[in-house]
Amino acid sequence: QYSLIKDVVSSLKRHRMHEQQFTHHPLLVLSNFGLQQIQVKLMASMFQNMFPSINVHRVNLNSIKRCLLISYNTETQLLDLRHYSVKVVPVGVSKGLKKLLQEKFPNMSRLEDISELL
Predict the structure, then answer these.
(1) Cα–Cα distance between 69 and 80 in angstroms, integer?
(2) Is the pLDDT of residue 14 over 80?
(3) Residue 30: what pLDDT?
(4) Is 98 exposed, middle or buried (0-12, 13-18, 19+ CB in 10 A)?
(5) What is the mean pLDDT of residues 16-43?
(6) Which of 29, 36, 64, 74 lies 20 to 30 Å from 106 when distance is taken between CA atoms?
(7) C-alpha separations of 68 from 77, 91, 105 in Å
(8) Which GO terms describe its molecular function (predicted)?
(9) Each residue of 52-80: pLDDT tens digit?
């Protein structure tokens, strides 16, 4: 079973598709591949070799725009693939400062100075 990208995009309220998402490889997450069966090990190795490995000490978190989750169901022996878009959002700051950090410039015409926004 699969879904076409046009069906996925049309079902979303706010879709985020831009070319910068595909300039870097996705973060690969494998679930339930720890079994000792040779075919499961082979599948895990194949998926790991499809994408370059990530050095967790040197990776720039802003460069990770996608996450690919591959889950293996041991009962049905089926794979579930989920492809997520990742967005870094500031947390714990005021609404005005959040807009500035996301490079969205709010309307400040009714403000006297920037301290009112912050």
Answers:
(1) 8
(2) no
(3) 93
(4) middle
(5) 84
(6) 64
(7) 19, 24, 32
(8) rRNA binding
(9) 888 888 888 778 888 999 999 989 989 99
Q: What is the pLDDT of residues 81-90, one digit of tens each?
A: 998 888 777 7
Q: Is residue 47 domain-resident?
A: yes
Strand-pair category, 78-85 with 27-31: unpaired
How many structural domains compose the chain?
1
In a domain, 115, yes or no: no
Separation of alpha carbons 68 and 76, rounded Å: 21
**Does residue 31 belong to any structural domain of this protein?**
yes
Domain residue limits at 36: 5-90
Phi, psi at residue 79, to the nearest 5°?
Answer: -105, 135
